[in-house]
Structure formats: C-alpha cells, structure tokens
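Feature request, filed as a ticket because there's no other form

It would be nice if the structure record came with a short human-readable summary line next to the tokens. Right now we just get the raw output. Example of a typical job, pasted below so the devs can see what we mean:
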Amino acid sequence: MAEEIVAREGGYVNDPDDPGGATNHGVTIHTMRRLGLDLTGDGRVSEADVRRLSRAQAVDIYLHHYFERPGIAALPAVLHASVFDMYVNAGANAVKVLQRLLRQMGEPVAVDGAIGPQTIGAAQRAFAKAPDHIADAYGIARRNYYFAIADSRPASRKYARTRAGGKGGWIRRAEEFIAPRYHLTDAQFRARVASWG
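Raw output as currently delivered:
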C-alpha cells in the first residue's frame, strides 16, 4: 500500500497554493521537520532535504508514521488502503472523516481524529452491519471532504478539477477506492462544481 501511495504522490513539488509546502513523494517539509530528517547534515531541515528524500525513505515514513503509529492496522482490513491513503493526504482528518461516517451509521464515537478503542470498536461494528458497503461509504465521504475544501478555498479547486473541467486529482484519488458504480459521471461532476465558475 505504501509503494502505491508513493507512486500516486509523485516526486518533488513546491506549489504555493498547497499548504503542505515543499513535498517529495508526498512527504512534506513539515513532516520532515517534525521527524528531524536533516538529510544534508547542515543542522536544519530545508527544501534541500526534501529534494534528497528517497522513495524508500518515503515508504518507511508512511509505514511507520501514517499506518502503524495512527493505528490504521487495527481497523477492519477493508478500510486499510483508503484510510491509509487519505491519512497521507490529509492527516488526522482521514480519521475524522471515518468517525463522522461511523456516527452517521449510529455508532457512538468521538470525532477527534485519533484511532483508539472506541473508534476501533465502532468501525468493527459498522463493518459487521455493512461489510459490502463501508469501504464505498468511506470513499464517498472522503470525496465529499475534498469537495468541501474546494468549495471553501478557491485556490484548492485545481486539485479537485482539471483545467479542462474534468475530475481533478483529489476526486480521482478518492474514487480509486470506490466501486465504479458510485463514481460521479462527467455530467454529475460538472453539476457538482458548476458553482465554482
């Protein structure tokens, strides 16, 4: 899963509209600073360190800091890939999206972005109730999260919609984890983003 995430994330970018700042293989400069990854050995973590980050180092960071440490492995296996991928993309918001979904499914769980016994139990019960649908429901909730960001932050719309007006990276990425029958058609997508101008 981590190798697939690195492939989706791509190489070095430093988009001024991306709050993550300088990023390589999806690992942001902020994450590298938090982890103290001074790859150049100059005593500080800068863009030069981000540029030096290898694919293997990114995979290791993802496995340890974005899958194992947050506790994603304790969730039902059907949720692993999508929650993991979104955690890399959106941090604890990936868990909050899940927790909100669990609440909509009638599970009493706090929306705090942390995976603990309460969230694990709620996810297991929700999976037992809807084993064939929970992964799609999470993917749809994830897609809606990205739309909400783009609705409120015009600078982020380029991540949800291409210049040609089609589905952008965020939406395509969310739909990779949703059964095709729940993908938005081109017409549905255009209608959803029509208010963006």
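Something like this underneath would help us a lot:
Strands lie at 23-24, 27-28.
The chain has two domains: 1-69, 74-197.
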